[in-house]
Write a structure and sequence with these properties.
The chain is an alpha/beta fold and 164 residues long. The chain has a single domain, classed as HUPs (Rossmann fold, 3-Layer(aba) Sandwich). A 5-stranded parallel β-sheet has the order 3-2-1-4-5, sandwiched between helices. Helix 2 links the parallel strand 2 and strand 3. 29% of the residues are buried. It binds adenosine-5'-diphosphate (ADP).
Length: 164
Amino acid sequence: MTVAIYPGSFDPLTHGHLDVVRRAADIFERVVIAVLENPQKRPLFTTRERVSMIQESLLGLDRVEVATYGGLTIDAAREFGAKVIVRGLRAVSDFESEFQMALMNRRLHPEVTTVFIPTSLRYLFLSSSLIKELSAFGGDISEFVPAHVVEPLKQRLGQPGGRT
Ligand code: ADP
């Protein structure tokens, strides 16, 4: 059984992430979405919030599960028994740092391979940070994130109807 880990911040989850998850689940028998616990990155949502947003989006995808990790992605991959690290690729700008990371991870543990899944055209420009910015300034984000992510984002970023 080939296990793949799909690591990231998912702060918050977008349709771009979900597109990668679906494609990975078509290829690999088990896909572990691994949410990075990264307090130093000061995420907008707690790890637990990010995990439950993902879980809510996965209803029906039985090869996929959600976990959290800290430290090095390559160590998490080994811990979860994954031979593959899945990363999504958008523009060429993603490529350089992703390639660097993939080669470093291979040097550390050659038995784990990074597989890049190109984004769908409609999500080419989509990133969690852009979504946060758009939401903070009142833009309509409903097309880019699952429905249950829209409200928490508005609340956290202080839009009308929110807490702050
Ligand atoms: P990280 O901080 O690890 O980059 P992200 O949550 O931003 O965490 O991204 C996790 C993974 O999902 C990365 O491989 C990233 O390239 C990919 N990704 C993010 N947005 C998209 C998108 N719109 N289409 C395809 N892949 C994406």
